[in-house]
Fold each of these.
Amino acid sequence: MPEQLLLQEAVDKVRPLLGKGKVAGYIPALANVDPNKIGIAITTVDGTTIGAGDYLEPFSIQSISKVFSLTLALNLYTEEEIWNRVGKEPSGHSFNSLVQVELERGKPRNPFINAGALIIADLLQARLGAPKHRMLEVVRQLSQDPSVTYDKTVADSEFQFSARNASIAYLMKSFGNFDGDVDTVLKSYFHYCSLKMSCADLSRAMFYLANRGKTLAGDEIVTPVQTRQLNALLATSGLYDGAGEFAYRVGMPGKSGVGGGIIAVIPGDMSICVWSPELDINGNSLAGTAMLEHISQQLGRSIFRLFNYY
Amino acid sequence: MPEQLLLQEAVDKVRPLLGKGKVAGYIPALANVDPNKIGIAITTVDGTTIGAGDYLEPFSIQSISKVFSLTLALNLYTEEEIWNRVGKEPSGHSFNSLVQVELERGKPRNPFINAGALIIADLLQARLGAPKHRMLEVVRQLSQDPSVTYDKTVADSEFQFSARNASIAYLMKSFGNFDGDVDTVLKSYFHYCSLKMSCADLSRAMFYLANRGKTLAGDEIVTPVQTRQLNALLATSGLYDGAGEFAYRVGMPGKSGVGGGIIAVIPGDMSICVWSPELDINGNSLAGTAMLEHISQQLGRSIFRLFNYY
Amino acid sequence: MPEQLLLQEAVDKVRPLLGKGKVAGYIPALANVDPNKIGIAITTVDGTTIGAGDYLEPFSIQSISKVFSLTLALNLYTEEEIWNRVGKEPSGHSFNSLVQVELERGKPRNPFINAGALIIADLLQARLGAPKHRMLEVVRQLSQDPSVTYDKTVADSEFQFSARNASIAYLMKSFGNFDGDVDTVLKSYFHYCSLKMSCADLSRAMFYLANRGKTLAGDEIVTPVQTRQLNALLATSGLYDGAGEFAYRVGMPGKSGVGGGIIAVIPGDMSICVWSPELDINGNSLAGTAMLEHISQQLGRSIFRLFNYY
Amino acid sequence: MPEQLLLQEAVDKVRPLLGKGKVAGYIPALANVDPNKIGIAITTVDGTTIGAGDYLEPFSIQSISKVFSLTLALNLYTEEEIWNRVGKEPSGHSFNSLVQVELERGKPRNPFINAGALIIADLLQARLGAPKHRMLEVVRQLSQDPSVTYDKTVADSEFQFSARNASIAYLMKSFGNFDGDVDTVLKSYFHYCSLKMSCADLSRAMFYLANRGKTLAGDEIVTPVQTRQLNALLATSGLYDGAGEFAYRVGMPGKSGVGGGIIAVIPGDMSICVWSPELDINGNSLAGTAMLEHISQQLGRSIFRLFNYY
């Protein structure tokens, strides 16, 4: 089946699931999104991007930004400097739990739970003069879309409701694992989360994860080994407390956000982004996961010889 | 590099690590193993098994048996019957923790932690007339080695020190998630753990995980989809609390045992087994992990085009 | 007000609360009790016992037996031998939680939660030839009622549903803090719990706690110092997860059971027992607590000069 | 024995314990205190204050201030308003643990752990125009010592190291159980903790707890019932994770601070304050506890007829 048809089929197939999940409601700016939006885009290793549904409409990428943050940190710090401060293991707890951070004395389990992403944001703050500006620059280059921008309303609104993240940051500070001013780092962190990008943007931006670390523009943003490592972390910890289920059903490294987006990677083949705002009980896009599952099954059977890789 | 040389190189490369880990000491039968043993074997999709070091010497497979148990259960129960009683998520806790089982009301996180494996053993006990006999039969067929047998001394010794596993089983029973007589199921469980197999045996026995569910003898023991699912579970939960690190360094679905063995899979290419009795702090073979890391790096660069799959 | 009237008033005052709690339903033998039963008895330091309501009707004393067990253990072991194996602190967890026992490596917080009481039962088993027989003997002497007996149906029924307690016992055994055979100790433990005694019986039996360790018969079963210590433990840990609230409202050392009984002590003045089968959310008799609160307020104002002791 | 001699004996008796504990070292201002200081003072119900050792030397009262805060809150809010926001139960966790606060969704267990005291500080901030000023006023009146003052160095220093308390406050805010600006409330809270008072001051200031709520000046600062309730809370939750042991050994409602002070109450008889900077593993003054134990034993035998109250 031509890929374009496959994407359209994925959208059509899962549309009946709309209404079965729940849009993230903790801030008004997210709660007001149209729950019927649904889109998918892929960028294949030859550099082509195609999509179906609302794949050109920007949405709030939220935790998907944690992939960009970690990638940026890998350009500023040695591996040791990073992994001394944050672990590489699945959390086994709800994504914003303080229990684990306290029991493990201030070291978050991985860079994709909130605690770990705050550590990465703290690292960026320490080495970058203008981290918000730099992040925007990087994301625009990766996605080849100069119109990508922060949603100030979302960023400000999240900061208003940031008590739990502040609590996590101060807890890590109490263990000596947070250097910056908490409010400053939180503001940067929420800006990263507030990035508005479309499925097309995100599939292009994540292209390097499918392409041994090389971006669409041909720059090596991370090494091939680092790419493999990033994908390993995404495969074990990218989907909050649903990583096992996602591996079981979809079988791709991936990262979700409460805005309803999920990016996923078939190394050597393509980067994918799906979007549908309603979430399942683990906080992952319900219809988005189903689209990825459909794609995985179809490609596994038809196009890619070795795609049954797990 | 010819594969035979690669295996020998892996053994030679990691031998200096001997002495840096710790042999499992909770029962004498395990504590007395020679800590300097080291072996590796692979079985490639063409059905050839080669090895290096002590790859023909049987050792106690311990938790590696959990892969066989789950595979057997998939032949006796529907998916729903299994996954209603045990989850698919990484545990985020030490492998024999009761905390998670209590907090999640008797449902273990996955079938590869002790609690989950006890559920699987309970399932086998309920549907098999002679589960210990049947397990032996299956393992002998899979490994094509009729001499594989239980180590009664190990099984009995583990039963003597089974208080923690009994505690876990009774806890699940108190939540209505354990049907059988605890002592009976524990005895079966410890027999499975006490299986003595060599690296060659295990790489042959796990061949189906690399071969879309088909055994060396050509039987489909699980479907291709189930194979992908088993590998997904192994990738996220097969290495106790070190699954993230293992994915990061090695990037293969795998399962370890406290006897020092680790099996790993490159789907479509080969099944692997390494053995070295000394363990790291997560309870995984220290030198064994290093051998797999070496293999992963060497193969990634040289033989398999798509092997950088994560 | 004469004491007899006070007791009758307490019963009448709280009767409207009947129907607001919940009878313990985990075994049929307990679930079938008449929820409208209500009684109170006091034994004053002069040795007189008076009561009101159903104060002569035997009921299942359940966890109140933990006071007898600990008292018996104090006669068989040194303080050090006891407190090395069980703590003296409030638990801060639900009364049958394994989490605390695991986090604190097999040492229960105090002798009045299930885990701690199992340790005490284990101690009794180790030093007494016939612990069940001896317990009956002691309780009959203390209550001066030779007709006190075990309820075999309750004891057997609890043993049938003992998975959680078995889990706790095996967990402690896995940490080296449980010596006996788990089933044997559990059977003794459930026998102690199944004792049937009336409010009158219990107020007489607990007399020594109000009388510097001397029983109604004049024997010193514990020393004055031990009496003070027992009362201290009851004051901080006797009411499951409601000890603080009970101290706040009632202000007496006390011990409750899920059969709906509560014993309480005004040292130097009287021992009290109330009974009403319906429980509050902490597992303490709802109307029973209210009767004790009434008594505390009335006595505080009227009879006992120093009764505002805390 | 005359009381003056008793106090001197207590000091002499425990002096050999100096050197066996550890001075609180988390801020320099506390770490630099002379570890050999030791003092005791009592104020009997007739209003007389006597003391021994360094009983006139001011020290940092730290968590003892939580008694004053709660007392002040009882004058500003209804009971319901207070106990809806903070519990009355022993915590069963280390005194500054976030685990409990998270598991119990933002409601601290009692007003004497840090989390609970921060709630009380938040309540004071909301209703008092100048809470720090008012607190000073109250404490000066209660102690009849107009020279009592805050130690700005200590208050500022604690604020510098307040990450963990900030984390707790933000966590409660995330559950909707913290109204004020976190920094503002923390600053007030640390001021209360930084109060410098002598044993004599504190025994006088706590007089109302022994005197049915009436201060030395004759004002009823809390009602007799509230006094009994305060003492009940102190008896079950006043000594961090050592409340059970303290009840067992000393048998008085009490409150400790990491500055090495402990106040204790014999209702109807006297208020007591001991001071010795070295702490035991629970964070309570080691020699201070021993002095109270000595006093308790001596008075129990000799002066107070009914003092074996538990």
Note: Chain D touches chain C through 39 residues (CB under 8 Å).
Amino acid sequence: MNPLSSPLLADFYQFTMLQTYLEQEMQQIAVFELFVRKLPPGRNFLVAVGLEQVLEFLENLKFSDEELDWLATRFPPHVINYLEHFHFEGDVHAMPEGTIFFPNEPILRITAPLPQAQLVESRIINLMHFETLIASKATRSVLVAPDKLLVDFGMRRAHGAEAGLLASRASYLAGFSGTATVLAGALYDIPVYGTMAHSFIQAHSYESTAFEHFARSHPDNTILLIDTYDTEAAAVKVVILADKLKADKIRIKGVRLDSGDLAEFAINVRQILNKGGLEKAIIFASGNLDEYRLHDLLSSNVPIDGFGIGTALDISSDAPSLDCVYKLQEYAGKPRRKRSEGKATWPGRKQIYRSYGDDGCMAGDIVALEENDPQEGERLIQLVMRAGRRLRPNQSLHEMRHLTIANYRRLPVSMAALEPAPMYRVSISVALQALANQLDMEQVSLDQEISQTRQHIKQYVE
Amino acid sequence: MNPLSSPLLADFYQFTMLQTYLEQEMQQIAVFELFVRKLPPGRNFLVAVGLEQVLEFLENLKFSDEELDWLATRFPPHVINYLEHFHFEGDVHAMPEGTIFFPNEPILRITAPLPQAQLVESRIINLMHFETLIASKATRSVLVAPDKLLVDFGMRRAHGAEAGLLASRASYLAGFSGTATVLAGALYDIPVYGTMAHSFIQAHSYESTAFEHFARSHPDNTILLIDTYDTEAAAVKVVILADKLKADKIRIKGVRLDSGDLAEFAINVRQILNKGGLEKAIIFASGNLDEYRLHDLLSSNVPIDGFGIGTALDISSDAPSLDCVYKLQEYAGKPRRKRSEGKATWPGRKQIYRSYGDDGCMAGDIVALEENDPQEGERLIQLVMRAGRRLRPNQSLHEMRHLTIANYRRLPVSMAALEPAPMYRVSISVALQALANQLDMEQVSLDQEISQTRQHIKQYVE
């Protein structure tokens, strides 16, 4: 059982429901859409990421003998027979990765026989929710510091290995420069950064020896960590070492600060480096950083050239989850609508149309029905998988990253800021509203059932 | 490259440092300890979990050809040669899983040649940090609702698949009853729970048909979801259905509420079920729950028998990370101490001694040196791996769960509550304090180096 691709990455109810669907011959086409119900506090928009992993999961979905054996202890033979031949045969529509989106706009649609579409729910949410969460968080640092080196430092405190890896991918796609996580570099071809930890300095008797040892091993990657004992004294050691290394044509590339008052240290260290002839050496900062700290440092013109962002990025610390759901919108050709208070959904298969103003900036979206409801604007939802097979060769991560950064240029200025912006305009098309109303009217049979049952309640409640 | 066991699950600096260690022949024994610097707000203690996954990682650590090929594009041949034969040969000391612990108490110690001990840092933190985080969160629900059915519902919004799986394991070890995540059940032998989603109800034209279909498929697992349309009306349908199913000897086991005012609905639904002769049917609740909501519901005696806890559990929503670090405490036989302001560490290899009062409750801990510093109390740190091999067969998860629950009985009453308790007493032994002072004194050479360098600063700063 592969923990990252097993079809048992599902909630148990997906299998109990599946059994009933099979027994009741409920295998007609179901349409589920994935969307976020509301923005978390402090976010003006979200960035859709995770589609690649979803498509890979769906394309390779099958049950191993071991998985079937486990299920056979809980489900009858006809369920196991069905699962033995299971593969995903549905269609997937989605926004391209890196698309900016808003609440109630579907970012992914699954169209498949009901048991299939239901079975894949939990892992689809699990993948899209997390990567979208992290990309949306990373975007904020990219918007605050567009010209700085931004590196994902968060794997150690990410929630497990997959979170660390997908956080590297999502943040790179959102515009980060790279990651410290080696495996993310190897798997996704993301630039990898890193030099030394405090333990490296401490394992040496002298800090200056540690610096020199490192520089001699890594003449092209000499970013020296200078805050283990006395940051300014260490900056002077760097200057002295740079002089010494000139003879061997080794150049000090920069220094890293990881604690203390970053603003004060950066200013003093910059001065020391400059006076020591190391004007080109960069200052890289890390340690409890997030987009707010970046904003504070950069708006006071603190001379820092790059940032390592760890925990706050990989767990999206100020908003560690999204209210992300996967809802049935149609079954057997009939649109469905959940009417629960505050949780009502827009029924049917939907398309999003985005308009742009004369300045090129996003000016408003319309949520419309996919069919017979044409609107002005760019269509955001595309067919990406037909009958279980991906439609076209994937874009590279680098290409998607460029497109994502291009999308930021079309954000209205207020929305690109960290502060809350006026709500972006997302309208519901007349036809979609009419369909929702019509469904509510048609649900008379359901209402009659409820009101008949309510009569009975009197028997039970005085 | 296996994303969950690859030795590339490391920060890049672990490899750059390794190269220098090899080139400088720095392969003597290093001692690193893992500890948490401070409690997150709202926690009175933490519960150590994740050791099993760490030992498995260390025992199986080796480089594949593919991994070596990738590294060979960045590191010289002598590094690749070393890694080709790499396996972890160190010792591991740790607290047993399920041990209650406090800031500055090491929960894991690695004793290994420096390049080995350094290479495994990031994945060790990644595993121990997350499982400890989740077990510590789960414990709070178990303490609030010790006699209720508590089920992990959080996989879909956990941060990736591994987080979902490890959250099931950590919460079960901490006393939860089980999980909804099928793969966690299959991998760890955790009880698995689940019946139906709203989409199941919506795919049927009538709610009562959905209920009956499910009951006929799953006569032993009929927990019916009753909040899709009108919760109380649905409860009446359940009573009517129960009557109808008696002929077929099918018993309704219970109902689930997932939205609305859970207290009000539970009280009304209980009344309907009781008057309908379903006194034994349980009420299970889910939907945005955490330990605070459980506490509110149970302290008002709301008749709920079990809870599904999702997002808040799997992301530890109120404290999604711990200040968890892995620090060099000794190298080449010499204790090391990081002296940075506010981040000073206690040097050397340590043992924790725990005392209990006459009432059997925990009364205080002493952090002492492992050798020649005997103290009263229970020793919490044990040798669990010697020279890269585990010492004894693992305890089962079920056994660890029982021991964990037994540990809760020894918590002082105030610490077992949700509210902040007075700080638990953790003292530093006289010998450990003396060692720290002695190291500070001995670091005169380092201080001299710094003060000499500080002289130079004048050249650079006016």
Note: The first strand of chain B starts at residue 29 and ends at 36.
